[in-house]
Amino acid sequence: MEWHSWIGYLAATLTTLSFLPQAIKVITTRNTQGISGLMYVMFVCGLVLWLAYGLLIEDTAVSMANFLTLLFALPILVIKYRSR
Amino acid sequence: MEWHSWIGYLAATLTTLSFLPQAIKVITTRNTQGISGLMYVMFVCGLVLWLAYGLLIEDTAVSMANFLTLLFALPILVIKYRSR
C-alpha cells in the first residue's frame, strides 16, 4: 500500500469517529441546543446516499465508513427532533 | 458519466453543504451548547488530512469537497473554544 493511502485511511477514521463524542454527548445529556437540525437532516440523507454509492461500486471502505457514521449521526438527528 | 457517479456527487454535495446551516447558526447565535468540542477537533484534523490526501492523489473532487467543509467547520471549532 502506498503511503498516500495511510493518510486517506487516517482521514476517514478521524472524520468517522468524530461523530462518536457528539453522539455520546447528545445521548447522555439530551441537550441539543446549538445543534442545527437542518444540518443533521442533510447529513443523514447524504450518508444514506454515500452508503448506497459504496454498495453500488462495491467499495467496502466507502460503505463501512458511511455506515458507521450513520450509526453515530442518526441518534443525534432523532434526539434533536424529539427534544423540540 | 455513469448514473452511479451522480449518486456519489449528490452524496458529497449533501454531506459538504450540511455544515453550512450549522456554521450559520453558530456564527449568528454564538450558542455552542450541546455541540461537542472534541467532535470538531477530530473532524477538522480529519478534513485537513482529507485535503492533503486529495492534493496528493490530485483528485479535485476530494480536495474541493474537503476544502469547502473545512471552511464551514473551522469557525464552529473556533467559536466553540472561544465561548468557554
Automatic annotation (TrEMBL), chains A, B:
Print the keywords alphabetically.
Answer: Membrane, Transmembrane, Transmembrane helix
TM ranges: 6-24, 36-55, 61-79
Give the membrane topology, semicolon-separated if more than one.
Answer: Multi-pass membrane protein
This protein's source sits in the domain of life called: Bacteria
Q: Per the record's keyword annotation, is Transmembrane included, yes or no?
A: yes
Q: Where in the cell is it found?
A: Membrane
Which InterPro entries did the record assign?
Answer: PQ-loop_rpt, SemiSWEET
Single Gene Ontology MF annotation: sugar transmembrane transporter activity
- Entry's Pfam families? PQ-loop
A cellular component term (GO) from this record?
membrane
Q: What is its main location?
A: membrane
- Name-wise, this protein is SemiSWEET transporter
